[in-house]
């Protein structure tokens, strides 16, 4: 039987995230920023990266590998680039710092690239790409993953993470164009979110060691997070017929830009030698391009508006399903959830209550 779902006001979700992070010893500025970003992720319907991530963060905090009081350090810097050591801290605060640096470099020098290593999970990549677009620039973000869940094309053994890319660009009349995507057919944590709600997953998301599709969400969760073979396919699936090799290639370049460039880890190798208390050494990549390096910004934004207008005017194959622009589902979800609340399943609420109890933090979700 599927869990009952409760709609919780966004401010309560943010408060719950903050109370736990605070109890774990994160300083107040980082608490406020991280809780806001986690809640914003849930508002946008990316429930796999919001408050449910407290489950993973609790495990990492318990083993001592998550350094919540860490202060990132700039290791090297030029006019257009920087490399930051996150010191084993949670990825949200250092990612905001990195993107702010990249934006400022792009303002002065037309382009800014900042890489981060020795980091941890940073939530939704699109939140950081959006920062660049709000500053009138183009943002590109990628990240690697601690959890190895994706099978290479023609493979039976997992070798890659979901390795997301995010791109954002500003227009004048329309919302920011924001593409936030895993390079796997779906994010691994989305399988977790389905399992928490007892909801079957679509065929094609997860396959077992011999290529059979798995639709039972709990079985898929166990395969991904506890098993050794089978897993998520790259975008397009595990073969070449529907372009799986293209998703696989994108995942490789997310790894190269995020970790090979910065000195971050490749998880299949690191996981073999990582000891309790060792950080995951996740790598993250932030690039900002100033359109004014190429043409007046208002011309760029006007042309993007025209592009969006033309796409929206496309005759839909189904009148009930209009053509969308990247970011449309997130903006719609945000508006709805601000008005109605963020859905929290009974099982997730119970888990969060237990985490808060262990942390000595108040439980504020008001779900029994």
Write a concise synopsis of the structure shown.
The chain is an alpha+beta fold and about 375 residues long. The protein has helices spanning about 10-25, 30-45, 55-65, 90-110, 125-135, 190-195, 215-225, 245-260, 265-275, 295-310, 330-340, 345-360; strands spanning about 5-10, 75, 80-85, 110-120, 140-145, 165-170, 175-180, 205, 215, 230, 280-290, 340-345.
Task: Give an overview of the whole structure.
The protein is α+β, with helices and mostly antiparallel strands and 368 residues long. It folds into three domains: 1-63 and 342-368, Orthogonal Bundle (Hypothetical Oxidoreductase Yiak, Chain: A, domain 1); 70-185 and 243-313, 2-Layer Sandwich (Ribosomal Protein S8, Chain: A, domain 1), CATH 3.30.1370; 191-232, no CATH class. It has helices at 10-23, 28-43, 54-63, 91-109, 126-134, 188-196, 217-226, 244-260, 267-273, 297-312, 328-340, 346-359; strands at residues 5-8, 73-77, 81-85, 111-119, 138-143, 165-169, 177-181, 206-207, 213-214, 231-232, 282-289, 342-345. It has a seven-stranded mixed beta sheet, sandwiched between helices. Strand 6 (165-169) and strand 7 form a beta hairpin. Helix 1 (10-23) runs antiparallel to helix 2 and helix 6 packs across helix 7 (217-226). It is globular and about 55 Å long.
């Amino acid at each position: 039987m599927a869990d009952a779902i409760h709609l919780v006001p966004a401010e309560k979700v943010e408060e719950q995230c903050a109370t736990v992070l605070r109890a774990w010893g994160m300083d107040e500025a980082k608490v406020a920023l991280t809780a806001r970003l986690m809640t914003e992720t849930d508002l946008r319907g990316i429930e796999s990266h919001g408050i449910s991530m407290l489950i993973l963060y609790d495990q990492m905090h318990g083993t001592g590998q998550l350094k919540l009081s860490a202060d990132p350090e700039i290791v090297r810097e030029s006019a257009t680039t920087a490399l930051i050591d996150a010191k084993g801290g949670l990825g949200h605060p250092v990612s905001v710092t990195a993107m702010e640096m990249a934006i400022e470099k792009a303002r002065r020098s037309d382009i800014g690239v900042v890489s981060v290593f020795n980091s941890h999970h940073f939530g939704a990549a699109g939140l950081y790409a959006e920062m660049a677009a709000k500053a009138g620039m183009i943002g590109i973000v990628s990240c690697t993953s601690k959890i190895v869940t994706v099978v290479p094309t023609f493979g039976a053994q997992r070798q890659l993470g979901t390795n997301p890319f995010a791109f954002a660009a500003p227009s004048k009349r329309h919302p920011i164009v924001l593409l936030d995507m895993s390079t796997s057919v779906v994010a691994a944590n989305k399988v977790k979110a389905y399992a928490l709600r007892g909801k079957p997953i679509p065929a094609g998301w997860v396959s077992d060691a011999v290529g059979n599709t798995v639709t039972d969400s709990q079985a898929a969760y166990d395969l991904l997070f506890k098993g050794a073979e089978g897993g998520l396919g790259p975008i397009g699936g595990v073969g070449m017929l529907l372009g799986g090799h293209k998703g696989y290639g994108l995942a490789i370049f997310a790894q190269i830009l995020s970790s090979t460039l910065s000195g971050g880890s490749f998880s299949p190798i690191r996981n073999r030698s990582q000891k309790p208390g060792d950080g995951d050494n996740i790598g993250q990549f932030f690039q900002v391009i100033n359109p004014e390096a190429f043409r007046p910004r208002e011309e760029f934004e006007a042309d993007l508006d025209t592009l969006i207008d033309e796409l929206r005017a496309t005759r839909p194959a189904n009148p009930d399903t209009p053509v969308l622009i990247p970011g449309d589902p997130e903006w719609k979800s945000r508006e709805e959830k601000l008005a109605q609340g963020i859905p929290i399943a009974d099982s997730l609420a119970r888990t969060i209550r237990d985490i808060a109890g262990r942390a000595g933090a108040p439980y504020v979700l008001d779900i029994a």
